[in-house]
Amino acid sequence: MTLLSRRAFATAAAASLLLSCGGHRTGDDRETTAHPESTPPPPTAGTSPSSRSSANSARTLGRSVPVRLQVPAIGVDTPVMRLGLAADGSVQVPPITAHDRAGWYQHSPTPGQTGPSVILGHVTVGAYGDGVFRHLARLGRGERIVARLENGTTATFAVDAVRTVAKDDFPADAVYGDVDRPELRLITCGGPRTGEDYRDNVIVFATLNSASP
């Protein structure tokens, strides 16, 4: 990553407790992420469940923006938009629209580069109903996540762990911290809902398994 990207990535980690998900507003709802629910214990700073897994790592890819994301086990097949930082320093989220899409945080590595590539999506989209990541919490270890890149390459990841965490305990180090191989994070909201707000975030940790032209 460039120096600017590293700074923005660090800013996102520090501001991740402001992450918004899935309500009828995009500017006021704030989602962060609690105790793990039937998930591994929280990793130490700079590590993640996937960085400790025994899954085989594929070759590292060059930088190429993701344009489509597919998660066959939960019926996800979505275009991917680019997301940056909002004015308050929080990570942007996709807009609340009828045709909901996932969004890649553009200051993170692209899928297949060394490091954690971060993709966000809504669990609900207000009056429009279910969001693109509505079933993210159902994913199991080993299931496939396919990222199709702008240069025509396909990067296939295997799920290592799925964590549901409360807003006040969002594991920024585990999500954004340095890792020595290509990894992927998918993030949405979850847990009990009060009005338009969700108590928790759902985070999927995955490792690159294969790549093809």
Q: What's the overall geometry?
A: globular
Which CATH top level class fits?
Mainly Beta
Arithmetic mean pLDDT: 81
Question: Oligomeric form of this entry?
Answer: single chain
Portion in beta strands: 25-35%
SS-derived structural category: mainly beta
User: Which runs of at least 5 residues are low in confidence (pLDDT < 50)?
Assistant: 14-18, 22-55
- The share of residues in helices is under 10%
CATH architecture: Beta Barrel
Ends: how far apart? 23 Å
Describe this structure in words.
The protein is mainly beta and 213 residues long. The chain has one domain (3-212): Sortase (Sortase, Chain: A). Helices cover 8% and strands 34% of the residues. Strands 1-2-3-4-7-8-6-5 form an 8-stranded mixed β-barrel. The longest helix is centred in the first third of the chain and has 13 residues, at 3-15. The radius of gyration is 15 Å and the shape is globular. The model is unreliable at 14-18 and 22-55 (pLDDT under 50).
What are the salient characteristics of this protein?
213 residues, mainly beta, 8-stranded mixed beta barrel, single chain, 2 helices
Topology:
Layout: H1 3-15, E1 66-71, E2 76-83, E3 102-105, E4 115-120, E5 144-149, E6 154-166, H2 172-176, E7 182-194, E8 197-212
